[in-house]
Design a protein that fits this description.
This protein has 549 residues and is α+β, with helices and mostly antiparallel strands. Helices cover 37% and strands 23% of the residues. It has three domains: 149 residues, 2-Layer Sandwich (Copper Amine Oxidase, Chain A, domain 1); 141 residues, Periplasmic binding protein-like II (D-Maltodextrin-Binding Protein, domain 2), CATH 3.40.190.10; 239 residues, 3-Layer(aba) Sandwich (D-Maltodextrin-Binding Protein, domain 2). Strands 20, 21, 22, 23, 24 and 26 form a six-stranded mixed beta sheet that branches. It has a five-stranded antiparallel beta sheet with strand order 3-2-1-14-13, covered by helices on one side. The protein has a five-stranded antiparallel beta sheet with strand order 6-7-8-9-10.
Amino acid sequence: MKKVLVMLLVVALLAGVFGLPPVRAAEGVTIQMTIGSTKAYVNSKEVTLDQPPIIENSRTLVPFRFIGEALGAEIGWDPVKRTVSYVLGSTNIVLTIGLTTAIVNGVETKLDVAPKILSGRTMVPVRFISEAIGAKVDWNSGMKMVTITKKPVKLIFFSGAIELVDFYDNFFKTYNSTNKYGITVVQEYQSNATANLQVRMAAGDVPDIINAGVTQTMIDSHAFVDLTDMPFWKDLSPEMKTYSMDVKSGRCYQVPLLKSLVGIYYNKKIFAELGLKPANTWDEFVNNLKTIKEKMPDVIPFYMGGKDAWMLQHLANFTMISPAAQKLGYIDFQKALQNGDFKALGWDTSSNGALATFAADMMELQKDGLINSNIVTATYDNQTTAFASGKAAVISQGLWAMSDIAKKTDDTSFIGISQYPSIINGVKPAVGSTTDGSLCLSSQSPNVAAAEKVLAYMLQPENMKALSEAKHEPSSNPSVQSNWGVLSSDAAKITADTGVAKLNWPWSPPGFDGDAQGRMIQALFAGAYKSPTDFAAAWIDAWTKGLQK
């Protein structure tokens, strides 16, 4: 037993286990050490070293554990290989005792002086370690003092998710007060996030972490960190990586934290009272709405928020665009969209084509008074309020809307979700089975390593569980078990129904993005097109021109 204890003691000494407790760099850190002195200062606070810094071959060596913890890095010691390691964000450094070769992120790097063990302490070259981690090193030859400075890191978390503003404010408040890396994350919410992001990118003012829709132009300009080979994918559902992949490059620049379902919300109590069932075909859908209008004149059959254009685009995604997606399959469909292959997509100006049929169906709903009269000016908040209060029987939304609806009613048991009806005979009804809560990291950020550290924290199971329950959507990590909401049984039923197509978000051209598509549908309701075929022609023209930008 004594021999075992002695061996453990030796290993502990070599690894520096009995060194200083971790120094938290919450506001950045300044470290000062003097050659030959055991007195060091971390943010002006005196610390006693077990081994003073030394100079060897004109290079300063310092205790490896002290400098690592002071800079906020995770440290490691392998007594068999006699290696020490530092991990901070995406930076991984490995040094071997007695060797002048270090490994930084898998790449061999030459050292001017080898790490060594002195009086039971592992000593490492301070300039190499500090600069590899991102700190600045200054040397005062007169005082024989080395000063290491690591500035505090402030990251902008840019979000377009209005329903999660409070959640992320609280989430990052906790993270900022507990992380040991000197990182502060501040949320910035923008209602028109994608358009705002485009403006900021053009001005060179790119946020560090992005939770908003991104365009192909942004991806093509290498604006985001390539996440394809990150280890976290193994923990997520397999389709999440496929759906997150940029079809053009075959790389992944965003990672989804959630899975969502986009479909038709309906009031179960109203449907039960009137003997209605969720529709599979457009005729069934219209008949349901007509019954509601006739039997319950004070209830709006189908409430659409047209002012927030993205909601109209979502409706088009899984009705008008659905036939092409089902016909081609995910990859070929996305490629056809990118190439403007209208023949493959089945997009034309014929009166019975998908584009004109969608326009005709929307015009019919408006003419027959089956939708809200204020559709062009109605907002997301108007829509969710009307549904929560029972003044609207049906809305088009994703699972993300449940968090807002739940705030507006004490009883959510009446809420159901079903598929979008098919507008073309012979085509399955569909739902959006999509990624959500996707995050991108700016490649232009000076703090990519810190952003990766925050991303890793957000992907921890307990944090994904909290997000899932706040957003009322299932996690993209299937091992995360959360009580995410009243629609879980409906979602499971739809997911298992082979008669319902499950579709991901379609690709959009740089010059005709989702907002622009929604605005074209706004114009349809505002009477801008004389006929459904005029709308179809305008859609194809806008898509063609959008590809050229």
